[in-house]
Design goal:
outer membrane lipoprotein receptor (LolB), chain A, two-stranded antiparallel sheet
Length: 176
């Protein structure tokens, strides 16, 4: 009877030791690379996030999805995920009108912009954290600096503004 307890203790010791050793082992596939990847502007990607656009007392909030494939860009803008979204297609060398972010009735009747358009190529580079100068009187700020989004170096928050317009962008997801 004493030998059954001894065999049981040895078996229990063997199982616990095996589990401990297995849990301490590392596999190369499971090791995460702690180094953040740089984003190549030329690559194809999808960038998702939220925005808040303000022109004096008019404010518009919503989400955006930018899908870049080669030189074409699809911009989807929505108020929330339950309402229909607006899809706009661009070529990389075109300009984005800030008024596209607002409901047209409200914006056209109250304000006329002097510099309402942004170069899409430079805007995308700024959204990716690659500082580019924008057209006249536009300033770009990265209040939270560059951080990690899905393992890539990307600014979490970007503020683009001029005298009349402020555009606050929060990057949520980057997929290559």
């Amino acid at each position: 009877m004493n030998s059954h307890y001894l065999n049981f203790r040895l078996l229990l010791f063997f199982i616990i030791t095996s589990l401990f050793l297995i849990s301490c082992s590392t596999k190369p596939q499971l090791i995460k690379n702690s180094e953040l990847k740089d984003i190549q502007f030329q690559s194809n990607y999808t960038l998702e996030g939220k925005f808040k656009a303000s022109i004096n007392d008019i404010k518009e909030t919503g989400y955006f999805v930018i899908k870049k494939i080669e030189n074409s860009i699809e911009l989807r803008i929505g108020k929330n995920y339950l309402l229909p979204e607006k899809k706009i297609y661009f070529l990389l060398d075109e300009k984005l009108n800030i008024s596209d972010l607002f409901y047209e009735n409200e914006i056209n009747t109250q304000y006329q912009f002097s510099q309402e358009s942004l170069s899409l190529k430079n805007l995308l580079k700024n959204l990716l954290g690659q500082e580019q100068t924008l057209s006249l009187n536009w300033n770009v700020k990265y209040p939270d600096g560059i951080s990690s989004v899905n393992g890539f170096k990307l600014p979490k928050k970007i503020i683009i503004e001029n005298n009349e317009v402020q555009l606050e962008i929060i990057n949520k997801n980057y997929i290559e």
